[in-house]
Amino acid sequence: MTGSFNVSAGKTGWVPAKVEQILQTDEQTICIRLRTIKDSGWLHVSWHPTSFHLSMGPAPTRGAVSEAFAFGEQLANGLRGLVLLQADLPQPWERVIALSLSSRPSDPISHVLYFEAMGRYSNVLLVDQESGKIKAAGRQIGGSQSRLRQLQVGGVYHLPPPAPGLDPAQARSLEEWVELVTRTAEQLGERKGRPASWQDALVRAFQGVSPGLVRDLGARAGVEGASPPLKLDQAAWQRLHAAWTTWIQAVQTGRFSPILDPASGQISVLGPMQILESASDAGSLSGSGRQAEATQRQADLLMANAFRYEEQGVREMELEDWDTGCNVAIVLEEGKSAVETAEGWYTRARKQRRAGKSLEPLIEATSGDSAYLREVQASLEQLAGNEDAVVNQDLAALQGIQDELVAGKFMKAPADAALAAKGAAKGRKAQKRSGTSSTLDRFRRFTSPSGLTVLVGRNNIQNDELSHRVAKDGDVWMHVRGFPGAHTLLQVPSGQEAGAEDVQCAADLAAYFSKARGEKRAPVIVASPADLKRPKGSRPGQVMVAKETVEYGRPDDSLAAAS
């Protein structure tokens, strides 16, 4: 199952929006053109049994509508010109989205378009708000198909019955969560006559949890999905619970980015951050090394005062810290004397020192990967556009990102990778024979106030090309400081100099095409291409700057923000 939908995305930037056009591109997909004050785009809604989805996407290709579909015409007649006001879940944790519309933003809701993302039962229905009656349906369900819930034009719409299970958002400790999943698996096993897996138990125990989600959780935690709960050790449970908590937080905050794994064809809301989490985990563990000295001092203080604990027969005492002169409370460990407690702390300090030393190479490696992947993430967030030419350039840049992630062994190569690589090689040979290059055409291109060209990379491969091959003496190279972002190059013809307005223009663009886009001002590194160096063994797009100055870019004043 590869279905997906994202309500939070609809709430950020696309509500309210006017419905300008509705096209039904096939038997199970409609595309709705929305226009806001700042932008326009297409909302894709599909009730296909295995690839159901609701998401913003590119405009339908020309010729996509090869025949007239009655459902699409009914929606167009009923919704064209209305205003989309809300995108909500009528029932928490249920896979039903309600798109509420009215004639004007100030008017009461007149129509609701319901999208039911339920596998082979997926559906889209237009309902009159006042009467509650169905005006159009992607799939009509009669009494012969379902005794419990009929969905027919003219009938009253009712939400699907709530799924069994508990509310996933209710706070549960690791122990309570494990006990609930284990008990549910035992009940399922008794009913089926065979051991139930932890995945089956998780789907059954909680509302809003699909088989696709638990597969995603298992992949994130590195736990075999078919394993019965009793065969999982404590470490596996801890990893699963951590992945579960990450999902809960992502849903509650709306901060997640679904991705498609090209190797498996599965949608994932958790998969792309594993390396970033490894770096975070390694950094946390390295704190153990830094804690060694503090543990050592505490053990020394306790050992020097052990006799006082024995004399007074107490388990807690305030002792003067030799370094600060302040009193600190030191409590003995349960069942141990003062000397035994201090000896245990000495052992812990030694382990912390060893952990710190052994983790240094891991921290260095994962920190580099983390910085690189944050640059990749920033590039992905910037790939957007409505014009066909821009979309095509972004698709090429997206292909470049996939290629570099495969080359860096961050993801598996898709099934058609060999064929795509062969076609790309032929294209490069053809360019070489013709003496032309499309590399410069693929960069984002802008013109400064005095007519100079500003190039901005779309991904790390283009950033690398821009910094180490395209840039020449006299050009001005830029990158926002302290944030992931694109490399920016102000091209200056030989014998000319860049004016202050040109430099400011390029700095504004460097700030805009970065994670600092939401800031009012952002520091931008300015350097000569001669001062750029590629670190040995580094990832694409990573540079060292030998000499730099700083300008402040204003993202909102950039040419990209104005276009």
Molecular structure report:
With 563 residues, this protein is an alpha+beta fold. It has five domains: 4-137, ibrinogen binding protein from staphylococcus aureus fold; 174-269, no CATH class; 275-377; 383-434, no CATH class; 442-562, no CATH class. Helices cover 40% and strands 19% of the residues. The chain is built from 15 helices and 22 strands. The strands form five sheets. It has a ten-stranded mixed beta sheet. A six-stranded antiparallel beta sheet has the order 15-16-18-17-19-22, sandwiched between helices. Strands 11-12 form a two-stranded antiparallel ribbon. Strand 3 (29-35) and strand 4 form a beta hairpin. It starts with a strand and ends with a helix. 30% of the residues are buried. The model is unreliable at 1-5, 273-280, 282-286 and 384-390 (pLDDT under 50). It comes from Apatococcus fuscideae. It holds the Pfam family NFACT-R_1. Residues 531-563 are annotated as: Disordered. Residues 443-544 form the NFACT RNA-binding domain.
Topology diagram in text:
Layout lengths: L3 E2 L1 H5 L5 E10 L2 E7 L4 E7 L6 E5 L12 H10 L3 E6 L7 E7 L8 E6 L6 E6 L5 E4 L36 H19 L5 H8 L5 H11 L12 H20 L5 E2 L6 E2 L5 H31 L1 H7 L3 E5 L6 E5 L6 H45 L5 H20 L9 H18 L4 H4 L1 E4 L5 E4 L3 H11 L5 E5 L7 E4 L8 H13 L9 E6 L4 E2 L10 E2 L3 E5 L5 H4 L1
Helix pairs in contact: 3-4, 4-5, 5-6, 7-9
Keywords for this entry:
single chain, 563 residues, alpha+beta, ibrinogen binding protein from staphylococcus aureus fold, ten-stranded mixed beta sheet, six-stranded antiparallel beta sheet, 15 helices, disordered N terminus, RQC_Subunit_NEMF, tRNA binding
